[in-house]
């Protein structure tokens, strides 16, 4: 599934670009807790996206080989989201809770925007 790897690489570039803006916002504005929450949530969101991509590749390989199929790591990704919420609640002076939650959702927004961009481009 090389197209899945291409898709993930494109999403990773977009997220790293966003993270660089968040770091600049954290460094140069007075909204440091908001940007730190966005950085935390988006970082875990990128990790979750990497995890589901990697497990999807393993899932496909196992199906082709006729082996037993394991889960796609739902509990791992939910634990990551819970981790972000716990950190943001425990340290509200550093992390803004709502921006951390928005950061967790960032990958889904990036996926949707990337989908629409790919649909507008002429196919190769």
From TrEMBL:
Identification of the protein by name: ATP synthase I
Keywords: Cell membrane, Membrane, Transmembrane, Transmembrane helix
Coiled coil (residue ranges): none
Source organism superkingdom: Bacteria
Record InterPro entries: ATP_synth_I (IPR005598), ATP_synth_I_Bacilli (IPR039072)
Pfam families recorded: ATP-synt_I
Main localization of the protein described in the UniProt heading: membrane
TM segment ranges: 12-28, 34-52, 72-89, 95-117
GO CC terms: plasma membrane
Localization in the cell: Cell membrane
Mode of membrane association: Multi-pass membrane protein
């Amino acid at each position: 599934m090389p197209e899945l790897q291409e898709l993930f690489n494109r999403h990773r570039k977009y997220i790293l670009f966003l993270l660089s803006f968040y770091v600049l916002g954290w460094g140069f504005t007075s909204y440091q807790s908001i940007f730190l929450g966005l950085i935390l949530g988006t970082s875990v969101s990128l990790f979750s996206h990497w995890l589901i991509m990697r497990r999807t590749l393993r899932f496909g390989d196992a199906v082709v080989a006729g082996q037993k199929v394991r889960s796609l790591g739902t509990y791992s990704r939910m634990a990551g989201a819970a981790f972000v919420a716990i950190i943001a609640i425990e340290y509200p002076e550093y992390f803004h809770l709502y921006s951390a939650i928005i950061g967790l959702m960032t990958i889904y927004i990036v996926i949707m925007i990337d989908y629409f961009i790919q649909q507008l481009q002429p196919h190769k």
